């Protein structure tokens, strides 16, 4: 290594002439040390500078510094030899210059990056240089001899100079103190100062090395003058002698105090501190040494005296050692509160020996760098650090040790201005595989000298790159359905994580495989084995990732998955069949097209299938085999067969898939059979299942699913059940069966549920009408609910519930019942599936509410802090409500409670056996996850609104999935009911699906009788109304000869037609379970409402026409105008009222009753939209009837109404008199039934409402004399006997008289007016005819 040297030499020489100067070049500097003795100032800097003195009065001393630079180390040896050979002093000719000495003051060298400057013999670096530059050693003192850095230009080592001593003194003058003595420019101040300094200099100049005596100020206490004497060396005795001279001289001018002079000496007291340096928490020793024979020493902290008997301070007894008084003060466990100036005082003979030391406590707070991880690759370098907070480390040193851990990796120590460092790196050879990732602790011990002050520990983990390999237990080519395994081996076993990925070869998508398929790697299991069953999702490149915190290593291999059908995807036909010789049986095995090697095994004999023995249907191919060979031998017996599938692209592949077994039975050839080329042959009443995908041609790539069931009714097969599954739903079912083997369960399930929701919506109509599709949907949901190791998200749950909502709509109830009648418990399976899926629901927020569906809703919470909390959730459907309440004090935090409510499941689940009870409210399920065996602590309260108020005897029940009979059903164990109005409260001690069971009332026979009366009466009414219309058509021309009668019959016919159509809609609405079809029920209710209102408004039109003809006799309205007004009133007003009613109530689903196609009574009060107008019209008609009767029976004087018109008006009044009480009483009782559910009211209303048509026929149509006459005339034309006609007419004419008498008697006017029959009058009926009615 090349070394460069720089030498600084110092030469002292004397110059004898002021006129001659010394020159210097760029490499030398000459400093004047002494220029004028009288003007020299002493400061702290001067005290540390070089020696300065005047040699003679006419000579000056100079110091010349010379810098010499060289690279050859031999030059230094030669130069030292030259200097040692010189004879000093040396004189040179010319100006009087004497060289007194030449010395090497500073020696610097550079070795690579390291620099060092050391002082020559007798030379030292000044304190400021020592402080500003790092020393060669760790010791820092006032003067140092070596620094590890080049100093600033012009700074070299110097000779220590003689110490100038400053002695502080004071003299007391017994004279008053004035303010002028505070002003240094005042005359009094200057007078005192000049006189005192003259005396001081005169007396103290005798002291050795005296420099000056200066007054520094005045203060009170009489007048005290403070002054300072500067000198190089003196004795105490010399100073006392000089003080005596000062006192003697000043006594001539001033009266002095006693004692007159006070002297404070600091240079004779040596103050040392140990340890040095010291830090917070150290025991600090202060040692005071005074050149005195007195042991009376006092310690001060600031101005406070220190007592030596406290716990913090200890003052050891003073003693005299070699003429020096020694006192020691100990400060125990020094803290920041101990900082300050500490002083030791000793008074002897009027002289105070004093010295002080400013204690500044340095905190020794160190921080360490963070724990680190290092990869053993030789290039990963990490530096550990222990750094001092707010300070440097010049006076400290550190030791790094490996405290714990199996790694024995050493680093390189170093330091910065405030940190100790330890640099670590490692190679792969230094790190053992079995120790990779283990923790090693490195300890940094901070020392002051050899004393450990503090320590820090840093944890280091060394990671070795793992050698990862993948092996397979079989070939890397597998078929769908074939099990395979991959083994990932790592030489590093301290693995934090192992993960497997599949990389799609086409899209390059990386799919993380779920952990359920493989095991982790650890010290006891150094391999991770991936076990899976192949499907198309498992095709791709496999990557095994071995992760160790900051290191990740991996290995790859590729698995090719070839298609092969699974057993449940192979359709065989027939599965069980018969054959007879000499004909052969046809066997079919059908799958989705693929590269398959297909053979058929018959009675354990493997046979080939000819290539031409296949058929295709869309994307489906069927392999066909005829067996036994045609013709078959008579000895051929029963046989069992199956199709064997292998993938033709995999050589030496032993994996195969077998179809379901086919069992064929031989029968005798004389048995009658059903024979069909597709279905096969069968005996009488044999049943055969025909796969739907073989029966129907599919245009899509996906085949249908399910079976068609046929029964043999010789000679043909008859279909008895259609359980076909649409192609799209069959694809969903097939995909659901593969979910459990998906590499990414949660992700795949999330996507699948979205598709399931969308396809279910699209196939809604198909599902509602097909038991096969509905059963497939239930199977799909069941498979989903049983997929293990999944976490159900909110989106998954929403899609799941939307699917459930679709398949439990009202329109599917009949299909559900068909499934139940076929012995399938699909409704129970659906309920269990929803419960199981809800248990997996991870409620991300504290609560969840999914209530947008019409038929199923969900609410739930995650229990956080269960103190004083409870679970309270309400459900609101169209016609039903429910509530779930449960206390949470017994549940663990993070438990999940989920409640599901169904509005239609009450009609889907089977009714209880051997009872007439039915479900009469919501079905509500509540599940708890995890359960944690809390069954004995659970108490759940549920409130159900009653759907059918006619049912009684409420009973709380739950759906028991495992009754003693082996089937599911309703069970009332563990629940107590309480009826509260139209609500039932159930308190149960367990969780599952609950509802309420209610039975019909005890008067079931009476209810049945009312139903019989209603149906018979409505039937009679319909016949009567039709007969009324026929009669009106027959007699129309005979009874409408004037305007009044014409309008009467128009109104009457429309009343009959309205009632007829209304009753027809009533019959339609009475069809069992028609209310389950909500849209159809709305239509029925609308038209029933409209036509029932119409008959009342036509009654009103008839009454208003009567009132008009009686009151406005002399005003004329044309027939067409009256008809227009009547039709607007009869149909326009009902239409407006009906439309407004449905528009207001249907959007909120409160238009119809729940179990009846009629206006809602309880929720929206839509029933009032009929009752109020109807009863109002009844009241108006009654008033008009009274007015009309009075007007006719009390005509004005002189009125002579025409007989025919008066008779017509009486007929109108009679019709009103009959219809108004009839219809009014009927619907009055109807209103009463809605208010009070009384059996008597029900019976009266049923009778009146059912026989309205019959009453109208008898008391309105047939009671009309003119109608009867017209009918009799029709009868004459039909050759009826005239005698019979005459007698009939005579008997009929008595009726008006009887009515007349009754009315006159009613109004108290018997015999005053006579209403004549005048049966044969003929009136043409002009518009002006009515004007003479009341003449």
List the helices and strands and how they pair.
Blueprint: E1 3-15, E2 28-32, H1 44-47, E3 60-70, H2 73-85, E4 90-92, E5 97-111, E6 114-119, H3 127-132, E7 146-147, E8 165-173, H4 187-204, E9 210-220, E10 223-231, H5 236-250, E11 256-265, E12 269-274, E13 284-290, E14 297-301, E15 304-305, E16 313-321, E17 324-331, E18 340-348, E19 351-359, E20 366-368, E21 372-375, E22 382-388, E23 397-404, E24 412-415, E25 419-424, E26 439-448, E27 451-463, E28 468-472, E29 477-479, E30 483-490, E31 497-503, E32 510-512, E33 527-533, E34 540-548, E35 551-562, E36 571-573, E37 576-579, E38 585-592, E39 596-602, E40 605-608, E41 614-617, E42 620-627, E43 639-647, E44 657-658, E45 662-666, E46 674-676, E47 680-682, E48 687-691, H6 692-695, E49 705-713, E50 716-725, H7 727-738, H8 745-762, H9 764-769, H10 771-785, H11 794-807, H12 813-821, H13 826-839, E51 847-850, E52 856-862, E53 870-876, E54 881-887, E55 896-902, E56 918-919, E57 923-929, E58 940-945, E59 952-960, E60 969-971, E61 975-980, E62 983-988, E63 993-999, H14 1004-1039, H15 1043-1069, H16 1078-1111, H17 1119-1145, ...
Helix pairs in contact: 4-5, 7-8, 7-10, 8-11, 10-13, 11-13, 14-15, 14-20, 14-21, 14-22, 15-16, 15-17, 16-17, 16-18, 16-19, 18-19, 19-20, 19-21, 22-23
């Amino acid at each position: 290594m090349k070394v460069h040297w720089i030498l600084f030499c110092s030469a002292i020489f004397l110059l004898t002439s002021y006129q001659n100067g010394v020159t210097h070049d760029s490499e030398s500097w000459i400093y004047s040390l002494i220029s004028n003795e009288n003007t020299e100032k002493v400061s702290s800097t001067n005290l540390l500078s070089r020696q300065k003195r005047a040699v003679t009065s006419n000579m000056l001393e100079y110091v010349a510094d010379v810098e010499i630079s060289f690279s050859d180390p031999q030059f230094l040896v030669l130069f030292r030899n030259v200097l040692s050979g010189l004879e000093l002093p040396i004189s040179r000719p010319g100006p009087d210059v004497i060289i007194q000495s030449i010395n090497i003051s500073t020696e610097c060298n550079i070795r690579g990056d390291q620099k060092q400057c050391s002082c020559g013999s007798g030379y030292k670096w000044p304190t400021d240089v020592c402080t500003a530059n790092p020393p060669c050693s760790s010791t820092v003192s006032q003067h140092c001899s070596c620094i590890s850095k080049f100093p600033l230009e012009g700074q070299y080592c110097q000779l220590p100079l003689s110490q100038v001593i400053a002695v502080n003194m004071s003299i007391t003058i017994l004279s008053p103190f004035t303010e002028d003595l505070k002003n240094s420019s005042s005359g009094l101040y200057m007078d005192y100062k000049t006189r005192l300094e003259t005396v001081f200099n005169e007396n103290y100049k005798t002291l050795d090395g005296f420099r000056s005596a200066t007054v520094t100020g005045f203060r009170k206490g009489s007048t005290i003058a403070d002054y300072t004497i500067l000198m190089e060396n003196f004795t105490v005795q010399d100073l006392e002698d000089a003080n005596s001279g000062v006192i003697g001289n000043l006594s001539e001018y001033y009266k002095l105090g006693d004692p007159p002079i006070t002297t404070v000496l600091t240079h004779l007291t040596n103050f040392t501190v140990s340890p040095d340096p010291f830090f917070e928490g150290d025991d600090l020793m202060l040692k005071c040494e005074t050149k005195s024979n007195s042991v009376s020493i006092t310690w001060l902290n600031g101005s406070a005296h220190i007592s030596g008997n406290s716990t913090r301070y200890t003052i050891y007894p003073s003693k005299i050692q070699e003429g020096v008084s020694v006192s020691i003060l100990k400060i125990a466990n020094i803290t920041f509160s101990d900082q300050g100036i500490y002083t030791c005082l000793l008074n002897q003979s009027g002289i105070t020996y004093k010295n002080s030391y400013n204690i500044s406590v340095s905190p020794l707070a160190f921080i360490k760098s963070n724990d680190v991880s290092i990869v053993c690759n030789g290039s990963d370098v990490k530096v550990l650090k222990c750094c001092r907070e707010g300070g440097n480390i010049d006076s400290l040193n550190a030791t790094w040790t490996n405290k714990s851990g199996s790694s024995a990796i050493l680093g390189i120590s170093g330091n910065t201005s405030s940190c100790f460092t330890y640099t670590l790196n490692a190679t792969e050879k230094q790190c053992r595989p079995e120790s990779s990732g283990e923790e090693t602790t490195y300890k940094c011990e901070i020392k002051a000298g050899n004393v450990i002050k503090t320590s820090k520990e840093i944890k280091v983990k060394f990671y070795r790159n793992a050698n990862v390999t993948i092996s397979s237990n079989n070939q890397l080519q597998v078929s769908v359905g074939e099990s395979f395994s991959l083994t990932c081996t790592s030489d590093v076993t301290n693995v934090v994580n192992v993960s497997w990925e599949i990389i799609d070869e086409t899209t390059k998508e990386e799919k993380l495989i779920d952990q359920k398929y493989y095991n982790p790697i650890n010290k006891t299991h150094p391999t991770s084995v991936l076990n899976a069953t192949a499907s198309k999702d498992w095709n791709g490149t496999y990557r095994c990732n071995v992760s160790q915190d900051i290191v990740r290593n991996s290995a790859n291999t590729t698995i090719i998955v070839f298609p092969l059908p699974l057993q449940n995807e192979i359709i065989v036909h027939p599965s069980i069949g018969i054959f007879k010789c000499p004909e052969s049986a046809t066997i079919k095995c059908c799958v989705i097209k693929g590269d398959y090697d297909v053979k058929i095994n018959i009675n354990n004999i493997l046979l080939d299938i000819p290539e031409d023995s296949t058929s295709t249907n869309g994307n489906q191919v069927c392999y066909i085999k005829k067996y036994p060979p045609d013709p078959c031998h008579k000895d051929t017996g029963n046989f069992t067969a199956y199709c064997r599938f292998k993938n033709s692209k995999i050589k030496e592949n032993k994996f195969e898939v077998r179809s379901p077994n086919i069992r064929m039975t031989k029968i005798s050839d004389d048995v009658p059979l059903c024979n069909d080329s597709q279905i096969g042959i069968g005996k009488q009443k044999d049943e055969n299942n025909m796969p739907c995908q073989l029966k129907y041609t599919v245009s899509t790539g996906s085949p249908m699913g399910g079976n068609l069931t046929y029964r043999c009714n010789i000679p043909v097969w008859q279909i008895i059940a259609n359980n076909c599954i649409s192609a799209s739903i069959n694809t969903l079912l097939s995909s659901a069966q593969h979910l459990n083997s998906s590499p990414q369960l949660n992700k795949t399930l999330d996507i699948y549920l979205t598709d399931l929701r969308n396809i279910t919506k699209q196939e809604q109509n198909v599902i509602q009408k097909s038991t096969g599709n509905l059963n497939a949907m239930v199977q799909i949901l069941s498979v989903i609910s049983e997929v293990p190791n999944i976490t159900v998200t909110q989106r998954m749950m929403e899609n799941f519930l939307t699917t459930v909502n679709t398949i439990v709509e009202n329109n599917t109830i009949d299909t559900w019942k068909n499934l139940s009648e076929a012995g399938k418990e699909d409704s129970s399976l659906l309920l269990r599936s929803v419960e199981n899926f809800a248990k997996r629901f991870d409620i991300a927020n504290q609560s969840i509410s999914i209530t947008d569906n019409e038929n199923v809703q969900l609410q739930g919470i995650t229990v956080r802090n269960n103190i004083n909390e409870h679970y309270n959730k309400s459900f609101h459907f169209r016609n039903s409500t429910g509530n779930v309440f449960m206390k949470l004090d017994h549940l663990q935090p993070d438990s999940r409670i989920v409640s599901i409510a169904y509005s239609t499941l009450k009609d889907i689940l089977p009714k209880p056996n051997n009872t007439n009870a039915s479900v009469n409210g919501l079905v509500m399920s509540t599940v708890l996850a995890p359960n944690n065996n809390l069954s004995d602590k659970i108490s759940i309260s549920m409130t159900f609104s009653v759907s059918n108020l006619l049912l009684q005897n409420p009973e709380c029940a739950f759906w028991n999935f495992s009754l003693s009979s082996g089937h599911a059903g309703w069970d009332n164990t563990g629940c107590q009911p309480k009826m509260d109005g139209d609500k039932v409260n159930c308190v149960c001690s367990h969780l599952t699906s609950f509802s309420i069971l209610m039975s019909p009332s005890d008067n079931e026979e009476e209810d049945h009788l009312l139903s019989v009366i209603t149906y018979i009466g409505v039937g009679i009414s319909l016949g009567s109304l039709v007969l009324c219309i026929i009669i009106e058509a027959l007699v129309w021309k005979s009874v409408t000869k004037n305007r009044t009668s014409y309008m009467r019959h128009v109104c009457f016919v429309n009343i009959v037609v309205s009632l007829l159509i209304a009753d027809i809609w009533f019959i339609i609405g009475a069809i069992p379970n028609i209310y389950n079809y909500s849209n159809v029920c709305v239509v029925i209710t609308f038209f029933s409402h409209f036509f029932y209102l119409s008959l009342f408004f036509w009654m009103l039109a008839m009454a208003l026409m009567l009132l008009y003809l009686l009151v406005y006799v002399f005003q004329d309205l044309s027939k067409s105008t009256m008809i227009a007004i009547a039709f607007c009133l009869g149909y326009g007003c009902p239409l407006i009222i009906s439309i407004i009613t449905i528009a207001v109530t249907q959007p909120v689903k409160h238009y119809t009753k729940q179990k009846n196609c009629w206006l809602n009574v309880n929720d929206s009060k839509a029933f009032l939209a009929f009752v109020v107008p109807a009863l109002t019209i009844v009241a108006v008609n009654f008033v008009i009837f009274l007015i009309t009767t009075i007007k006719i029976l009390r005509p004005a004087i002189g009125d002579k109404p025409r007989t025919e018109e008066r008779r017509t008006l009486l007929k109108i009044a009679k019709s009103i008199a009959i219809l108004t009480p009839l219809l009014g009483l009927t619907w009055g009782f109807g209103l009463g039934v809605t208010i009070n559910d009384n059996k008597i009211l029900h019976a009266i209303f049923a009778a009146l409402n059912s026989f309205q048509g019959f009453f109208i026929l008898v008391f309105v149509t047939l009671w009309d004399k003119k109608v009867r006459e017209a009918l009799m005339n029709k009868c004459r034309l039909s050759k009826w006997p005239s005698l019979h006609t005459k007698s009939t007419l005579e008997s009929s004419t008595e009726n008006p008289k009887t009515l007349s008498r009754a009315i006159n008697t009613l109004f108290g006017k018997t015999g005053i007016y006579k209403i004549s029959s005048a049966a044969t009058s003929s009136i043409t009926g002009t518009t002006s005819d009515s004007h003479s009615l009341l003449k």
